[in-house]
Amino acid sequence: MDPTGTILFNTVGRAFYSFDIFAVELNDDCPRSEHRLTDSLSINFNGHFVDDQKTLVYISDRTGSPRIFLNRAEHPHPERLHSPPESLFHDRPLIKNRRLYFISAHEQPQKPFASWSALYSTTLDDDKTTRRLTPYGTVDYSPAISPSGKIVAVASYGRKAWGGEFHELVTDIVVFPESDPTSRVVLCQRGGWPSWWSDSTLYFHRQSDDGWWSIFRADLSEDFYASSPPVRVTPPGVHCFTPAAIPGVKRIAVATRRKGRSHRHIEVFDTESRKFYPVTELLNPNIHHYNPFVSPGAAFLGYHRSGENAIPYLERVNSPVKGLNMIRLVGSFPALSPSGDLIAMNVDFDHNSGLKIVRSDGSKMWTLFRNRISFYNSWSPAHSNVIFTSIGPIFESAKAPVQIARVTFDPADLKPNCDEIQSEIKILTRSDTGNNAFPSISPDGKLVVFRSGRSGQKNLYIVDAEIGEFEGGIRRLTEGEWIDTMPSWSPDGKRIAFSSNRQDPENAEAFGIYVMEADGSGVRRVKVAGMDEERERLNHVCFSSDGEWVAFAANLGGVTAEPVAQPNQFQPYGELYAVRLDGSGLRRLTFNGFEDGTPMWAPKVFENLHLNEGHGLKGEIDDPLWINSDF
Questions:
Q1: Are 228 and 216 in contact (CB under 8 A)?
Q2: Order of strands across the sheet with 324-329?
Q3: N or C: which end of the chain has fewer CB within 10 A?
Q4: From CA 403, how far away is CA 389, in angstroms rounded?
Q5: Where are the alpha helices (DSSP H) in 251-373?
Q6: Which PANTHER family does this UniProt record tie to the protein (predicted)?
């Protein structure tokens, strides 16, 4: 029987940006204005011009998953284009010769730790048959179609299992005839995001040996092999990504990050004079701009950037499992009140983050406290006004000062005309005991299980939910020179699930799922067929309402899109999964290029969400931190 209920979760950074697609005229040497081409609903990104009248095909998340839309100049509303109905992920759509090309992740590979992304095409006319262009067992990203439409280029990961890297995916530039996708040729190794200038020349990006991301040019012979080694085009000293060749001239549009600058911008690079010409910095110097694209006749240069419209507090996400609902929140570590009317969460992890609660229809949010870092929440099933949380820095060592807190408030204060309410914070753990975090309250509301580093190792402990360890003492639940963390109490109170690296304590990155009796006995691992214990990253485990399933965040599906082309994601391979306690019935639940995590499994179905209420944006996002580190 399939799992049911609702899973509440967070997507990293999603609360802080929306995307819209914009364009400038390419014949304007000093652009003074840009044209917004999308309607500010949800996130709209990775566009492609169909013609020089600004007809646009792009990806939008507006229907609950990344899908393909077309904007025509003569039509005011976006048109959703045909694609496999079972697909919950699409990327990099292109239209050439009345055919639509796109990346999709709807066909499962035969092994874990392999990306699901592959290239497909379909006609825009009557025949709606979808054709797979990527061989089964192979992974392709970032397609490009030559000007004639006869040759396809992709950034291909090939048939190898995902190696765990994501700063630079080790993809190759592969080309093949559109008429015969099986005749694949590796044009060059180590390259991504290809862009055709002519049927015999294309550009791509890669990280050079000197550390700078740069644009390279490759020339094809008649048999599709490189006629000479790829040539580096852009100079060191500036990061250049995601090239878009400009037809008819020896220029390319690129996204750049310059030393001493805080934002990614679109520039035009002249490959003969080797000069850069700024574009978006003249318009929006303090906003990130991503992934340029050029119209067929070089009339327009497009890109996407963050907007300023609000993101709803809660939004529905398409689920691959009938009867199981998926709700994305603007915050992390959701915890549902006993009545199901309120959700506690952490919107950010800076010093002002604190703890917030939101109505479960998304209509109103309140702040319980601020000016303290708070993370990982658990709402007492026995009290409508008691929430347990961790207070202190997240992602720190065993000795870092983090404490378990019991937070109480008066529900009568939850009024529509106020944004902050008074709360009382009671610390349950001693300040000299180091890192105490990830509390989970028992179903009867009497005990809290949590992870503590007080022994020098991060193991699980239990304290009284009202008086903590000061009066009631503390009981150690697990013991070993490994990391036991992120516990979750089963709905019947008989078991506790948690993440641990006890299968290999020397590997602080590989975590599996474990279940034990509530007294700490009978520890066993939830084993899933085909898993590799040395590579698993299974975290944020939580029970279903019937106690038969657990949901968790994992790296089992590899990377879905080129991470360098996106805002910062700490783990862009993070997707949500569910599995039965006996390890059977594994289901992938989310599909996107970002990081999903911190699930909470609720028994109720959330109806009538208020999508007009939300988290105000300022257009601020983070570029990948592993790029910033070079500066």
A1: no
A2: 314-317, 324-329, 5-11, 596-602
A3: N
A4: 8
A5: none
A6: DPP6 N-TERMINAL DOMAIN-LIKE PROTEIN, TOLB PROTEIN-LIKE PROTEIN
